[in-house]
Specification:
alpha+beta; two-stranded antiparallel sheet; 5 strands; about 25% strand
């Protein structure tokens, strides 16, 4: 699945982008992403698939537990459930 950021999401970030605060405009609580979560957010651009995002992380971080791909997929599913990301138009696995 190729992911893009939701159209109704407001974003505020620190400089450098170590922390990102997100708020879906229909939600009451913001979501704050730090560290790897903020890096994943930066990789979501409407052109990268979940596999592309995983590959970029794998090139940067060591996956000692062998769980990174499952963790990335679960994180993306959580962002989707909160309506912070959505499938890019015409995108598929």
């Amino acid at each position: 699945m190729v992911w893009k950021r939701g159209g109704s999401v407001a974003e505020v970030c620190t400089k450098p982008r170590a922390r990102v605060a997100l708020l879906h405009l229909e939600a009451t609580q913001p979501v704050v992403l730090e560290g790897t979560a903020a890096i994943i957010w930066d990789l979501i651009n409407g052109q990268r698939s979940a596999q592309d995002i995983f590959a970029e992380l794998e090139a940067t971080f060591e996956d000692q537990s062998g769980q990174m791909q499952a963790q990335v997929e679960a994180f993306l599913a959580g962002l989707e459930a909160q309506r912070l990301i959505e499938a890019a138009s015409g995108a598929s696995d």
